[in-house]
Structures are given as C-alpha cells and as structure tokens.
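Re: export button greyed out
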Amino acid sequence: MLPLLAPVTVRPRDDRDHADRIALSAATTGGVHMATKDVRSWIDERREANVFHVERIPFAELDQWRFEDVTGNLVHSSGRFFAIEGLHVVEADGPHGDGPYREWRQPVIKQPEVGILGILAKEFGGVLHFLMQAKMEPGNPNLVQLSPTVQATRSNYTKAHGGTNVKLIEYFAPPDPERIIVDVLQAEQGSWFFRKSNRNMIVETVDDVPIWDDFCWLTLGQIAELMHEDETINMNARSVLSCLPYHDEAPGALLSDVQLLSWFTNERSRHDVRARRIPLTDVHGWKQGVEAIEHEDGRYFKVLAVAVKGSNREKISWTQPLLESVGTGVVAFLVREIDGVPHVLVHARADGGFLDTVELAPTVQCTPQNYAHLPAESRPPFLDYVLDAPRSRIRYEAMHSEEGGRFLNVRARYLAIEADDTVEAPPGYAWVTPGQLTALTRHGHYVNVEARTLLACIHAATAQPQREA
Amino acid sequence: MLPLLAPVTVRPRDDRDHADRIALSAATTGGVHMATKDVRSWIDERREANVFHVERIPFAELDQWRFEDVTGNLVHSSGRFFAIEGLHVVEADGPHGDGPYREWRQPVIKQPEVGILGILAKEFGGVLHFLMQAKMEPGNPNLVQLSPTVQATRSNYTKAHGGTNVKLIEYFAPPDPERIIVDVLQAEQGSWFFRKSNRNMIVETVDDVPIWDDFCWLTLGQIAELMHEDETINMNARSVLSCLPYHDEAPGALLSDVQLLSWFTNERSRHDVRARRIPLTDVHGWKQGVEAIEHEDGRYFKVLAVAVKGSNREKISWTQPLLESVGTGVVAFLVREIDGVPHVLVHARADGGFLDTVELAPTVQCTPQNYAHLPAESRPPFLDYVLDAPRSRIRYEAMHSEEGGRFLNVRARYLAIEADDTVEAPPGYAWVTPGQLTALTRHGHYVNVEARTLLACIHAATAQPQREA
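Workaround output, generated via the alternate export path:
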C-alpha cells in the first residue's frame, strides 16, 4: 500500500513556541541530568580523566606546519585548517573618504572554511535541555570548558587530518528542517581573523541520544548560573547561546528597529575600511623570532607554537600555532534603564577583519595595556568609566577566555555596568535593547563576537541574578 | 525662557503605520500632481527639453580616464568614481571545498564608494506620494527614465567633479531619524560589479518641497501602473521601491522564517567562492581594441567609452566608460500558489562580485545568447520553461534596463511565470513568499538586485494588475 502523501501546507512564518520554551528552560534551575553545583566537579573530573599537556615549542618543531617561501606565511602542509598571513588595513571615517585615517599592518588568521558550532537540544520533562560538552582546547587557561555539542571545522568533520569522526555531527550536517531553533553564520574576532565565520546552530531532537562521559544536558537556567563563573562556558558556546530567540518582553526601545537599522546603515556608509591580505613578511613593525612573532614594542599579541598531547580528542597529539594576547582585555556594556526598559550602549566598531566594515560591539572592548603608553585623551571612550565603576554598579562580571583552538590564555573581564542616567550616546554609539540585539543575531555581521558573549551574559543575568558573594 | 525638554521615552520597535500608509498609497491610482496617463508625455517632454547626445568614442578620446601603467586598469585621474579592473573567480560547491569547481577571469567595475539612492515621500490628501525624477543617464536605451529623487555617488554629492549640488540631498545625508521609512545598504550586480553597495533610502517630509520641471510626485498605485511599461522606472528606483515595508497579508509560508534562514545559511556554507581582484591586463580570454574590451568569443559584455553632451545634468558634458551586454537578458520568477499563498522560486546564486558568497536571485537570470553554443543540458535550469511559457501563464512582463550610469542598453525581459503545481524546488532553490523577501530587504546581501526588481514588479502587479491589451 502506498503511503499517504501529506498535503503541502503553509505554516506560520514565526515559531513563537520556541521563545516560550526558551523562557521555560531559562526559568528552570534544576536539570534532569546533573545538579548545577555538580557541574564544576564534573568538569574537573573530565580534566583529570584525560591527561593533556600543552607545551610551547619553537616554530621549527611544528609538525606539518611551515613558513612558506616568499610570503613567509605560516601554513599547514594540507593547505587546510588555517594560516597566519599578513593584513594591511586603512580605515577612513566619512563622509568624504579622505578624512582622518589610520593605517597599520598586523599578522592575521586566515581560515576560509566555515565550521559548525552546534548545540543539540531536547525536552526532558517538558523542559528544553542543551547538550554541552566538556572539551579540551589547548589555548584554554584551564584546558577544559563547556563547549557546544559539536564544534568542528570542515577539515575536522570531513576527516582532513585523519582523526576520528565528530560525535553527533549528523544532527547538524544537515539539520532536520523541522527541528531548527538557530542556524546563522556569525563572524569571529575582526581584529585577529580575516573574515572568518562559523555556522552557529541549535537543533532539537526527540531521539534517544547516547551520553558519553564528556557530555551533559543542562537547562538554560543552569547554563545561566554557570555563565557567572569564570572561564567555564567557552566562546563558541557563548556565541551560539546568544542567538537563542528569547521573547522581547519590553514595551519598546529608544530607537525603533527602522531607526536602529538606519543608524547602523549610516555607520557602515561613513566608514571606509580597506583591508588587504599581504604576505606575512611584509608586516612591518613586527619581528619574527625562534619561538614567537611579536610586535616590536611588545604590544597587541604574539604568534607562537604549541605541542599538545591528549587522549580523548580527535587526535592523540599534534602541534599547532596559537595567538597569545599580551594583556587581559576589558569588554563591557554600559547599561541604562530608559523608561524602565534596559538598554545597552553599542559601538559601531570597524575592524580590519570584518567582512563588511563595521559590526555592533560592546561599549568598551580593548586591552588597556595597549594604551598604557598613550596620553589620556587617546584612551578608548568609557574605558575609565568602566574601570572606575563602584561595585554597586556592576550588574554582571566574569572572566571569559576566547576560543582555545586559536588563542592561548586570551582572557577578558566581561562586564555590564550600570551607567548614570546622564550618559548619552556619542557619535558612533547607540542605546539599544537586548531584545533588539537578539533580533539582529538572526543575521550575520551585525553583532560582533564580544557583544554576543555579553548578550549571552545579560540573558544569563536576567534569568539568574548573581548570587551574593 | 528655556525650552521644555521632552522626556526620553521608549517607542514601539515596529513602525506598523508605515505599512498601512504604504497599502493606502498602493491602492491609490490617482495622484494629486499628475495623472498617470500624462507621465509618459511628461517624460517625453523632459527628454526633448534637454537635448542629450551620447556617442561612442575610442578609449583614446576619454577625458580624464586612462589605462593605468602596469595594471592596465581603466581609471579616472581623480582616483574616484569607478575603475574597470580584472576579477579572478574560483567557485567550488561544498561540502568539502574540493568538489567540482568553475574558474574564470573577467573585467569588473570596482567602485568602493557607497552612493545614495533616495526617494522623498510626502502625504498629500492623507496619501503618501513619492518624488520621482525624470533623469537622463547615458546608458538608458531611451535616455530618460524615472529615477529616485536623489541618486548620487559620494563623488557627486561631495562635488568631486566640480558639478552642481545634488538637489534635495539634504533630506538623505543625514536623514531625519523621525521620518525614515527605508534605509539599507543593498548590493548591485554581482556579475559586473566587485562588491558594490548603495544606500537605498525612503525618507518622508512635511516640508514644502520646491518642484522643478524634472520632478513629479506619484502614489505607489501610479508607480505600479508605470512599472508595467517598458524601460520607464530605472533600476535604482526599482531597487529602492522593493525595500518598502509592505504588510504580509498571507497566513504563512511553505518554510517558516527560521527554516528559510537555515536553508540560506546552508547555501552560503556549502559554496566556496574565492574572488580576487587582478590587473585588467591579466584577464585572459578578453581582448582590448581601440573602442572596446570584449570577450574573445564575443560573449558576455563589452567595455566601451562614450561622450555625453547634455544640458541639465550635474555637468554639461563628459566622457566615461560603460558596459554593454551582448544580448538581452531573461530574468524571471516562477510563481506558484501553495495553499492559496503565492510563492516565488528563489535561487541561491553565487556571483564573483558578491561580498558574501550567495544572494537570493530570481529563478532564471541569464542572457540566453551566452548559452547558444552549449548543449541543451548546460542551459540554466528553468530557462526553457520560462521561454516556452504560454501567454496565459505570464503574470507580469516588462522590459527593463539596468543602471544607465554604468550600463549601455543593458536590457532584460522581467517576467513572473505561473508554474505548474508539480514544480518542486531543486537543490539550491526554495519556494518563498514575497512577504518573506520583503522582510529580508531590511538587510543587505540577501536579495540580489535582479530579484529586488522582480519583487517591486510583483508588488506592482498585486497593486495594479496589468490592464488587458
């Protein structure tokens, strides 16, 4: 007997029930799989169960990586993964394209492949849980953090380096169209990567999913609590979680959506950023040593090499380059209630590695050490406001590290600081609501990765106010 | 006495009343300024009032344009406007980045400046009217077409070429935040431009606006009727009008918005387009003559030069390069009602000049002549379906020309063709509603310029079904 064909039917364009179920998960602080208080010890246990060593090595000891002739670019012999090349950036502010401009050269990570960052979701007892992985990345300060269910470069999951299969990748490549909650290409750091995007995904399942020792189902309420802990939720997980389609409960915003998009369009139009890849050998102002490529004045970051020995990753041991920042970053949103509606002060930031001129960044995003030699007036706007904020003004604070597969101990203090009612948005800045940022995360190249982390932190702070110390 | 400061207040994020007023304007076929039937003769009159001559000239007679040493690029002596350079494109389909690929070189227009395409709107008798300009562009087949109120490159309105001021530019640079209806960066042809975007704007005013002879206020109902005429509404106007935030009256769509965005994300991820600017001299397969740069087999397009003499443009006379297509294009949406809701079949098209891999294109977008030498199986999908469609299946048809400031007599037949109920979307294609496309035009790099024209045509066909011949 032939199966009956279901008639083709239209469906509502909005999936409103996603938001309801997200709200329920955010309000649920007890998960079915593990109590939140036990997650820390589980991560510690995973760290101990798999002995990893990460050791700095001279570039000469890199296996399958080499400095290419002529260009001097640091490349993998397969031509895959990523490469360290040079970038030449000229930025001009409009409106005329010949106003004041800045120009510089720097090393940059070139990684054209689009990877997958996927979190699997499933209802237990009617509440959405999210499958987090305790994953080792060589650059993490504490090696193991909670990562998405799957984080895989294309080279990973197509087995370019001969490793094992990526667990659960079948839920994401391709996803079941009936079960997609989030699926968007989001860019990574524009100051370190050249136009890199990853596919940020949340996909639901009703299957029985095997649970390996490295995996744990958590509610959003549990994740919110963990987001208040230092260096626990990794950058990729923060990025994916920031794209969750939360309800906007606020009655409105200072700017309507049309006004916000118009302001953003103007910011994109008035900046003229010309970024050009150049050979690494042409990056003036940086010097290459046996163990590091670094800025002549010791600022910004270093490129270096590590050897990794582990036991439960896709490969047992490998070597690779990493970037190391020279200081700890400060990444902060000023927050202000306008008519009782919380707003954050976004900055339309131009970075050389952005695909399209500017993205919305936190109010402050910098490494203060890079400004130590400059006069006070050259310091980034609001940096001192943030650093000098009394504790009573801090709505959120935690130390997070950036992606441990590319960055070694690159840490920043992520903050949400309550601003005075008198703080107005200067040119290039705008007060927007978290609901507006959330709506923009449905599309790429609006909300930068640091702002996405802070957005996830703000969702966490809303779901789960920090417990008193 | 000090003025009272209005309290800061939040407003609703949505401007729902814009859509209501757009619907009213679309339903209004009689404007206060000019009857629709008189617009044609007014355009003719404007054409005759200003005697223009456009003449093809050898490259050597270009004034202030020259072929640069070494690169051979065709550039303006000011370094502004645009340049003709070379483009090297390698396209691979995923998922592995080493699947079948195509590779070619071609001349390309490089124009990094963001221009403004702005339409001024104003209520007369409670109905929105839009200020259209009868504007001469040297490449228009009939020289004068209806254009936006303002179309200005940055060089134009900052007077780089010493011309007159651009009329009414003050409404758009900057716009009054309280009166913005549309403000978005939209890309132009990815096959001819390298990553060019213009700022598409519609701004309302309550001012008394002086009316010059070249300007006319029209309702959307009137513009809809004119959109059924050949070569009357220029490309820039079509692009801006496509971004109008019409209500979506449909109960839903075949794909929810999340599903549509996920499908699009997958299309972006699976294509790998590496486009690199190269010197024009390195464009193999093309030959440079005294009067034209053309493909060795006479396909695709030519680069040539013209001298323009006019009387009411920003400059009295000038010379410039233009691109001329070798044939007439076919640009068509297949249209199908699903559950009574009209859908169009979009194609995720990869063009070398796109900033970000793929954009949503019409079902068919090609110049059939370029395929004449190829076997039937190499013809674009659905081309013959469109060309063979009986007249009873044609929902919309008109000839439109592309931007007359860059393209000489580049025409295409724009069509909406009713498809059989059995036509399914093959890989790389999806059935989406006009309402979904409209929502995506709020953001750049989703809907390509040809699909935007067709979207404006479909809005026009909905507002104003074609009169019987």
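Chain A has one domain: 15-469. The button fix ships in the next patch.
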